[in-house]
Specification:
326 residues, 12 helices, alpha/beta, 2 domains, Rossmann fold, globular
Length: 326
Amino acid sequence: MFPASALARELMNRGHDVLFITDERGSRFVQDKVKAEVIPATAFFGRSLSDKLKAVGGYLKGKRRSMELIDEFKPNAVIGAGGYASFPAIRAAKTKRVPYFLLEQNAVPGRVTRMTAGGAKEVYCGIPPTTRIRGKVVVTGNVLRRSVIIRERKEGEEILVLGGSSGARRLNQFGYKLAKRMPEERFIILTGRRDYQEMRARPRLSNIELFEFTEHPEELYARAKIAISRAGAIMLSELLANGIPSILVPFPYAVDDHQTSNARWAAQAGAAVLIPEKEIERVEIVLSKLIDDKTRRELMSVAGRNLVPYDAASQITERIEECLAA
């Protein structure tokens, strides 16, 4: 939702009227002053037969409602920000012959992108895709909130452990273990809501600070010397844009193993180190080496900043405006 929200803000700043179409889950992240409509939408792939039948019913209702909203709002274009919640609106746009554009955050294109890219005016990729996408593909970098990027960030002093928006139990537990083994280092662990209480119940360590969730990750990025993180596209892009040397432990069960592809892209550029979860004990060795090697951290920081454009939202907005004016 964050890329869609950031792009909506850019469009509004340029004088465009924006209507956000999302599902119930996404509606919590819609910014103030943005008009929003909630439609039915449910994940289809990887579900039981009964859940898939419900998902088809939800899709049909969502598409019908999206078509009504297109008739009412009369948009010049529809922008699909990825994920199952965008699918009904994209299909409605195609039915109504409204031009549509797609955002794809990950190195491995998601199923919605693969299913709808052929009819899109352009597909804007946050990471160079590892597989062919039909249609016109433009690698713009991921759309990031301006507030999370610290342009002149100075290296912090703490080890930041991140598991993504929902947290990651394996990283939480391993971060705690590292803090016990490395008492001279200070750790920040963003646990996620699910594991926060379990982590708090552990014996207290003076060199750990726990956060359940934050809407301002830039406050944690400012304090980081090194990050240990999953490799979701947006969090990874934020770490790179802030020049934080990262040890990436991709979630091994992500759809199409897309986190590994994301992490490999960053590692090949020299901005991160990729360690599969099955080899997680290697993290301590790599972390110790990075702590002792300031020159390597500086090189990784520069590589990360060079990898991620800061202006993806404005790039995309300009391209959409040009496409519609042509």
